[in-house]
Amino acid sequence: DAKTTQPPSMDCAEGRAANLPCNHSTISGNEYVYWYRQIHSQGPQYIIHGLKNNETNEMASLIITEDRKSSTLILPHATLRDTAVYYCSPKVGTYKYIFGTGTRLKVLA
Amino acid sequence: DSGVTQTPKHLITATGQRVTLRCSPRSGDLSVYWYQQSLDQGLQFLIQYYNGEERAKGNILERFSAQQFPDLHSELNLSSLELGDSALYFCASSPGVGPGAPLHFGNGTRLTVT
């Protein structure tokens, strides 16, 4: 199964960009990478996903390296409400999404 | 609101007991996933159903079982409960099994075993 490696925690100043890295070196060529965040103990919230190309939506941008071994989630202007645990999650095969332990992002005022 | 409903929100029970957690997926979603999250841990995949059939199994204990009914709601049954089973249990749904389908999570059931 694909595995993910994320830094356990990061701080970011409010208004600055938050760049959250994820290593997924064991991902296969056709496996998408998804990003979610979990605020307190609520259910994880979907943010964005991608396969090969960079993606952007109203919440974030996703940069995937050409070799697909890693990706970076970018929150362009972090706010206090972005404080959460962020998970990158490769989809393995048809049915399984893998979650690691995530990065705890703290946005500082 | 993700559209995924989990009941109950909280459950407190004693060791050795059996409980049932319920999940209603988003309207139109055929796939249901169950995850367990222990204190300050990541999400551990338990099991997945698609349109009533089990399709993938993760680290699910033999004391745990699940099913998806014809109306697509799902139940996770936990029996012979132990203290270590105390955790948040999340259900998620997706439209199908296509590669671009993200998961939508409910807000979980917090199980406390005393």
Largest sheet of chain B: 7 strands, mixed
Q: Give the helix proportion of chain A (percent range).
A: under 10%
Number of distinct beta strands of chain A? 10
Quaternary state of this entry equals: heterodimer
Q: Could you tell me the strand content of chain A as a percent range?
A: over 45%
Shape of chain B: globular
Beginning-to-end CA distance, first to last residue of chain A = 39 Å
Count of separate DSSP helical elements of chain B: 0
Sketch the major β-sheet of chain A: 6 strands, mixed
Quick overview:
Chain A is mostly beta strands. Chain A has no helices and ten strands.
Q: Main traits of this protein?
A:
heterodimer, A: 109 residues, mainly beta, six-stranded mixed beta sheet, four-stranded antiparallel beta sheet, 10 strands, globular, B: mainly beta, seven-stranded mixed beta sheet, 11 strands
Provide a descriptive summary of the structure in words.
The complex is a heterodimer of chains A (109) and B (114). With 109 residues, chain A is mostly beta strands. Chain A has strands at residues 9-13, 18-23, 33-38, 45-50, 55-56, 61-64, 70-75, 84-92, 96-97, 103-108. In chain A, the strands form 2 sheets. In chain A, strands 1, 3, 4, 8, 9 and 10 form a 6-stranded mixed beta sheet that branches. In chain A, a hairpin with a 5-residue loop joins strand 6 and strand 7. Chain B is mostly beta strands. Helix content of chain B is 0%, strand content 50%. Chain B has no helices and 11 strands. Chain A binds chain B through residues 30, 32, 34, 36, 41-46, 49, 51, 87, 91, 93-102, and chain B through 2, 4, 31, 33, 35, 41-45, 48, 50, 55-56, 58, 88, 90, 92, 97, 99-100, 102-108, 110.
Protein topology:
The complex is a heterodimer of chains A (109) and B (114).
Chain A: E1 9-13, E2 18-23, E3 33-38, E4 45-50, E5 55-56, E6 61-64, E7 70-75, E8 84-92, E9 96-97, E10 103-108
Parallel strand pairs in A: 1-10
Antiparallel strand pairs in A: 2-7, 3-4, 3-8, 5-6, 6-7, 8-9, 8-10
Chain B: E1 5-7, E2 10-13, E3 19-24, E4 31-37, E5 44-50, E6 53-57, E7 64-68, E8 74-78, E9 87-94, E10 104-105, E11 109-113
Parallel strand pairs in B: 2-11
Antiparallel strand pairs in B: 1-3, 3-8, 4-5, 4-9, 5-6, 7-8, 9-10, 9-11
